[in-house]
Amino acid sequence: MALVPFDDRDGWIWLDGQFVAWREAKVHVLTHGLHYASAVFEGERMYGGEIYKLTEHTERLFKSAEMLDFEIPFTVAEIDQACKETCARNGLTDAYVRPIAWRGSEMIGVSAQETKIHVAIAVWEWPSYFSPEEKAKGIRMCWAKYKRPSPETEPVHAKATGLYMICTISKHAAEKDGYTDAMMLDYRGYVAESTGSNVFFVKDGVLHTPIPDCFLNGITRQSVIALAKTKGLEVVERHIKPEELAGFTECFVVGTAAEVTPVSQIGEYSFTPGNISLSLMDDYAKMVRRELQPA
Q: Structure pTM?
């Protein structure tokens, strides 16, 4: 399939309060967000004309901006509405939604108090992050070279662009070696998350998932925990050592892009997609499409 560059597409992008033709939505090369990663973003999905957990995503966008010491010049309600209108303007009812806010080009240096804060929203068709075939048999993952850093070193709970640098490096390395993704440890050596998803493990019918104390407590993660509890499943949030993976029978990752995706391998450890992983995958898909009572 031929690659369609993201800067050369038809459609409309919401930029600073107005719609701009897709190809004209541009920033200057000396934008502070490009040079110093002073940017925050969200990843959302619209299912059947409704963006799942829209306000929760928008509120997190604002909190992330606050952590990076800038203020988004719109209200949460205005960004919510802009996300909906951008989908409508592009004629989409099932879409991926990407709001992003960043510091502009008025100052180019570490100090950037006088920069203008820009906000854009782009939407596009994007099916499941992983193919149905990959999900059915479970994706294969290796261990990432880089670790999730300590909260003392950076704003780990912001969904900020700079925090994804090590994710891109790790995912590229994984794909080069024939894996789908990489699993990251945290600065203490505990299991953390994949390059873009939270992780769950199954042992004796109980779900185990890392405590998100140095990485994002994903909105999908929270939804899956609530969904699992409605199914009568016990969920244990705790620190997990890598060697404990030998005792888990199932594993799956969750995220807006990944949704719920079973895992068959992490490094030297193997898992078999089973009833819990597959049922949560199916129930989550039904829930976000309002075919199942939301958790």
A: 0.95
